[in-house]
Amino acid sequence: MNIGILFNCGEAAHICDKSQYQESSFFERILMKLHQMMCRVCREHSSENTKLTEIIEKADLKTMPEDKKENIRKIIQQEISK
């Protein structure tokens, strides 16, 4: 990993996104926090990202089961074939 990540907003944002889903390493989180101490834009991104994650979790969204998706795909393909 490049220590330059400390000053790269794109990579800091990527680590922030990974951190929201517990996919970042301890070292990455430390570098992200150090970067955020110096960068207002990345602090705001992190704050907004956290709020968005909380809203999505509270929404308790459900996805369509895979078998129903497959049925819809088949129906669409049948209609296209006509």
TrEMBL record:
Write down the superkingdom of origin: Bacteria
- The protein's name is Glycine dehydrogenase
**Phylogenetic lineage:** Bacteria, Pseudomonadati, Bacteroidota, Flavobacteriia, Flavobacteriales
